[in-house]
């Protein structure tokens, strides 16, 4: 019936209930906006007709089209908002640099939003904890020790730690590294935390 | 327990919908049996769907019905869907645990709460049945979600309505979190499940 394209956008997001970001459905969005324009124009002309010729029986149709407009608006707003929630989750799960295949799914405005969110988060973190700031994206689980044992799950190249030593992260190699350096890589699935 | 970063807008409680909630939008897409009480002239491309003469019975989605419904002026009149009528209400009052709520419409509680907007004379009974059904079924849902660890719960879950499914899922995630804490896995850093899912999807994208 009406507003079918809009509900399809919602279904697309609802299917990925784990929070993944699907590709930006530019086509679908454009179709919904076109439908809204057509409905709006028809309503404008009907309202003029109803006013000038006193045709009160047009009012139910005007009301119906208005409902469709509101529905389309709701679906589009919810679609865009839910995508922003998913993009925000990316900053916390992936870190500041997103892999290319994820960036590809975002439209230009969403990329801009992401970089501004990064900046807001960074300036907030800098304002905490005195001079140095506090990285709140670290220590998502209560830390038990300063150094942890990690195993490399895939080749990641060279990795420099604070005292200058360079470690070569080759698949299946095991290392004893400071926790704060590894947390990012573990979350990204490059390293594996080994608990004995 | 994996820390979650994606927090979608939850569905509204009771008769209120949350504007941005995906669940509420899908819920309001469900169709209701209604009867038109007036004509809808000049609908143009929508004309094929709305009948010419008033008094015709048809089905409209909830969002449209809510928008068109007016207490004073008769535009549409809403009939109760089968599941909320007297017949089914007696079944629910007798034993709510045997009913397959997913088949009765995946949004039984949600749609039922929304039906209360339409001023049916049976509203108090509908509201009462919804509440009692939920109370009676809740015990079993909570019990299973807290005690089924590493088991196949699909046979039980497929008879639950969406609200109950959400409750079951959060119960299970709590149980899994507690169990992993007991095993000492709570301090083990893990890869983000989101990241792993993206990687899985990338591989399937590449395959033709």
What does it look like?
- The complex is a heterodimer of chains A (196) and B (208).
- With 196 residues, chain A is mainly alpha-helical.
- Chain A has 2 domains: 4-127, Methane Monooxygenase Hydroxylase, Chain G, domain 1, CATH 1.20.58; 147-193, Ribosomal Protein L9, domain 1 (3-Layer(aba) Sandwich).
- Chain A has 6 helices and 5 strands.
- In chain A, strands 4-1-5 form a 3-stranded antiparallel beta sheet, with helices on one face. A two-stranded antiparallel ribbon of chain A has the order 2-3.
- In chain A, strand 2 (157-160) and strand 3 (166-169) form a beta hairpin.
- The termini of chain A are far apart.
- The model of chain A has no long low-confidence stretch (mean pLDDT 89).
- With 208 residues, chain B is mostly helical.
- Chain B has 2 domains: 7-79, Methane Monooxygenase Hydroxylase, Chain G, domain 1 (Up-down Bundle), CATH 1.20.58.2050; 81-184, Methane Monooxygenase Hydroxylase, Chain G, domain 1, CATH 1.20.58.
- Chain B contains 8 helices and 3 strands, in the order αββαβαααααα.
- In chain B, strands 2-1-3 form a 3-stranded antiparallel beta sheet.
- The radius of gyration of chain B is 22 Å and the shape is globular.
- The two termini of chain B are 35 Å apart.
- The mean pLDDT of chain B is 85.
């Amino acid at each position: 019936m009406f507003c079918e394209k809009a509900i399809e956008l919602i279904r697309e997001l609802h299917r990925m209930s784990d929070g993944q970001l699907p590709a930006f459905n530019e086509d679908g969005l454009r179709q919904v906006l076109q439908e809204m324009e057509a409905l709006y124009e028809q309503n404008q002309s009907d309202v003029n007709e109803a006013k000038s010729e006193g045709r009160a029986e047009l009012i139910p149709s005007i009301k119906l089209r208005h409902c469709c407009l509101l529905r389309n608006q709701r679906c589009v707003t919810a679609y865009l908002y839910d995508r922003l929630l998913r993009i925000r989750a990316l900053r916390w799960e992936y870190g500041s640099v997103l892999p290319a295949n994820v960036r590809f799914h975002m439209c230009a405005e969403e990329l801009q939003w992401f970089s501004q969110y990064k900046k807001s988060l960074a300036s907030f973190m800098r304002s905490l904890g005195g001079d140095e700031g506090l990285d709140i994206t670290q220590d998502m689980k209560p830390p038990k020790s300063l150094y942890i044992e990690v195993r490399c799950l895939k080749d990641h190249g060279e990795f420099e730690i604070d005292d200058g030593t360079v470690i070569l992260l080759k698949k299946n190699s095991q290392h004893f590294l400071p926790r704060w350096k590894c947390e990012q890589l573990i979350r990204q699935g490059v390293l594996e935390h080994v608990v004995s | 327990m994996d820390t979650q970063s994606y927090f979608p807008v939850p569905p509204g409680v009771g008769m209120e919908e949350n504007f941005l909630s995906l669940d509420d939008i899908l819920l309001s897409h469900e169709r209701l049996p209604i009867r038109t009480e007036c004509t809808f002239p000049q609908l143009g491309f929508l004309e094929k769907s709305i009948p010419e003469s008033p008094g015709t019975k048809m089905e409209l989605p909830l969002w449209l019905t809510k928008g068109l419904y007016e207490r004073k002026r008769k535009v549409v009149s809403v009939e109760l869907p089968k599941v909320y009528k007297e017949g089914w209400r007696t079944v629910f009052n007798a034993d709510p645990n045997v009913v397959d709520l997913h088949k009765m419409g995946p949004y039984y509680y949600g749609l039922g709460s929304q039906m209360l907007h339409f001023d049916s004379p049976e509203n108090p009974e509908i509201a009462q049945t919804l509440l009692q059904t939920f109370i009676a079924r809740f015990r079993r849902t909570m019990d299973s979600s807290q005690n089924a660890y590493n088991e196949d719960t699909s046979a039980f879950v497929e008879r639950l309505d969406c609200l109950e499914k959400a409750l079951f899922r959060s119960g299970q995630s709590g149980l899994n979190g507690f169990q992993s804490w007991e095993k000492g896995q709570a301090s083990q850093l893990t890869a983000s499940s989101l990241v792993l899912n993206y990687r899985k999807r990338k591989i399937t994208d590449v395959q033709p």
